[in-house]
Amino acid sequence: MLKPFEVHVQAEPLTHFESELDAAAWSVLQEEAAKARALMAGLAFWNVSSTAQGGGVAEMVPRLVAYARGAGVDARWLVLSGTPEFFHITKRLHHALHGSSGDGSPLGAAEHARYDEVLRDNLEELLVLVRPGDVVLLHDPQTAGLAPALAAAGARVAWRCHVGRDTPNAEVARAWEFLAPGLTAARLTVFSRAAYVPPQCADRALVIQPSIDIFAVKNRPLSPEVARAILARTGLLRGTPDAPEPVFTRSDGVPARVSRGADIVRLGAEPEPDSPLVVQVSRWDPLKDPAGVLNGFALLLRQSPDLRAELVLAGPAVTSVADDPEAAATLQDVISLWRQQPHFVRRRVHLACLPMSDLEENAAIVNALQRHAAVVVQKSLQEGFGLTITEAMWKGRPVVASAVGGLQDQVVHGVNGLLVRDPGDPAEFASTVRSLLENPERAAQLGTRAQEHVRAHFTAARHLADFVRLIERLDTRG
């Protein structure tokens, strides 16, 4: 019998934000918190998702839950259990919502029956926990089929889709047809971009952009020396004799040390500490296009052999993300492509699977890698939003992103980063990255503006206010 499990999240005080907001914004946040307490008095706000780790939703939800609890709202987080077949079907849906056929497997009646069977098992536990009047926010395709039973039990149900495509095609239509029976019961639907809203949800859709927690381990300040020490301990950089300890501070305030290394495919030695790194951190997903990044960087090296730069493609350990069954195959495809490259390319490309046993240790490694990078890239073919770029921008790094999905809502070309208009063009990618490597002064200016843009638009303080708006709309529709 499959059943969901609860991830217990400690409350975080909203006072964290007082030093980051001006007086007016801090006053507004306090007013929104008071409004949320009144709206949710005696009720719970449940978030339901499909995995407790792996980036994106799995990182955003617990931080928002922590601040909601800190504001006095009984916010909770449940994670579904599923079978390999279930997660294969939902990954196929994930691709379809991006307009891609994925592995081409069907999304017919048989697949829907298996999808529903897994959700029925999870519902037995959910219906014990969720009470009439509670708010339930379901995240992504894995959870959509839960909506009818939860709504029938008296919960106020909203469904949030974190992915989408600006220009729908037959695959997008196929995904919406599959999800339609569940979504009819959702009072509201939530999307990261207006362009992702399908016609059947237009009358009950909210646009809420994702955010990062600037106080999380992944986004806290790190000195350059400590960042280099963490990367050296992980195997991503050559160490130096005078390096400090590879330490970071956990979310509970306890100091800790990075102890685990990454699994790295490389030819030769680690990069020197002063070698400029081009970095992409993402899941091993074909839509993140790690193979395209490798091809574009190889072209950059062929065109500019004297340019001193190395590429790090980093992602989570492939067995660590339950709802992503394609990770291992995608990584193997990238390794095969790497092996086909000439020697001078292979010795300047590093493929890293980062340890995931300790999620805060993993966050510290990603933090160090992004802060040390000369350029952070996200060359996705399709992208729901792209929080890895948000994280890099917060750290003041110059970024290069594809002009797709939510990436183009964050990066203003030539103002706070650079966009690649055609993500399938390795020459455009190569020339865009080269322009930053060859002009560090411009790169630094873009990075400074990037941090201020994130501070103004993509932090948890703004996101919490959007959740209050969601609760108010659920009350109105009720």
UniProtKB/TrEMBL annotation:
Which InterPro entries is this protein grouped with? Glyco_trans_1, Trehalose_Metab_GTase, TreT_GT1
Q: Which SUPFAM superfamilies match?
A: UDP-Glycosyltransferase/glycogen phosphorylase
* Domain of life of the source: Bacteria
Domain named Glycosyl transferase family is located at 273-452
UniProt keyword Cell membrane present: no
Q: Which residues form the Trehalose synthase N-terminal domain?
A: 47-198
Q: Which family does it belong to?
A: Belongs to the glycosyltransferase group 1 family. Glycosyltransferase 4 subfamily.
Q: How does it assemble?
A: Homodimer.
**This protein is called what?**
Glycosyltransferase
